[in-house]
Amino acid sequence: MRFDEAYSGKVFIMSRPTAEESDVIMYGMPMDWTVSFRPGSRFGPNRIREASIGLEEYSPYLDKHLEEVSYFDAGDMLLPFGNAARSIEMIRDYVRKIMNQNKFPLGLGGEHLVTWPVVQAVHEKYEDMAFIHIDAHADLREEYEGEALSHSTPVRKICELIGPENVYSFGIRSGMREEFQYAQSSGMYMAKYEVLEPLKEVLPKLAGRNVYVTIDIDVLDPAYAPGTGTAEAGGISSKELLASIHEMANSDINVIGADLVEVAPAYDPTEKTQIAASKCIREILLGWVK
């Protein structure tokens, strides 16, 4: 199955007509089967695409234009409603195909559990990878209410896959006591509350390494992104998140894939959440794809 036959949906602004001529495959993972508070992130990918229509194609931050990046938006995956295990399997198989064709995977969520199968597929090709996690929540639980497949567990699973010493979390301001204790004792890196300044300190240590990056939109304060399933007061601004994306773009890390998750548009009639998310995606395309 070809990428451009696989799924249906709207496309991000200036998407190329075919996957074959593109360096990046953008894809939606419309899954919110395991959320612990408010559902609705399955509608996030298409609303991010809709918001992209209002973007300028040129980034004054990076002095680049979207015409300089070849990317194909494959639309949303057709995931089986309510079946987390099967959905994870499908996402992993799809991203494995992207990696086999040496293309950059750029995912739109969906709840944060979708990052877990993506990292599994990316790790098959890049065993030495590091993982940057930007989020309000630690996501280090082993289970939630007895369920191991939860949007509260992906970073713990990734620690167990690639080693906690290769996991770097930023902006964390919510979680169980045990999650923070695990972060402290396991050897992973966790920056609480802030993103940009600790990121500046960490990036030189990751120079030359292959890095996968996940961004949960709830790292933003609800004033900037109310449209998310588990909003958490005390977050960063959209300006700081963009600056953090640019810091990574101008660093010596090799970003090998990325995703942006947890946009739940029903809770934001102003659309500021998906507007912020779509601008972040533009900057990721222009800054991280080498």
Automatic annotation (TrEMBL):
One of its GO terms (molecular function) is agmatinase activity. Mn(2+) binds at H112, D135, H137, D139, D216, D218. Its EC number is 3.5.3.11. Keywords: Hydrolase, Manganese, Metal-binding, Polyamine biosynthesis, Putrescine biosynthesis, Spermidine biosynthesis. Pathway: Amine and polyamine biosynthesis; putrescine biosynthesis via agmatine pathway; putrescine from agmatine: step 1/1. Pfam families: Arginase (PF00491). Its cofactor is Mn(2+). It catalyses: agmatine + H2O = urea + putrescine. The keyword Manganese applies. InterPro entries: Agmatinase-rel (IPR005925), Ureohydrolase (IPR006035), Ureohydrolase_dom_sf (IPR023696), Ureohydrolase_Mn_BS (IPR020855). One of its GO terms (biological process) is putrescine biosynthetic process from arginine, via agmatine. The keyword Magnesium does not apply. Binds 2 manganese ions per subunit. CDD domains: Agmatinase-like_2 (cd11593). Belongs to the arginase family. Agmatinase subfamily. PANTHER family: ARGINASE/AGMATINASE, GUANIDINO ACID HYDROLASE, MITOCHONDRIAL. Catalyzes the formation of putrescine from agmatine. This is Agmatinase. It comes from Pontibacillus marinus BH030004 = DSM 16465. The lineage of its organism: Bacteria, Bacillati, Bacillota, Bacilli, Bacillales.
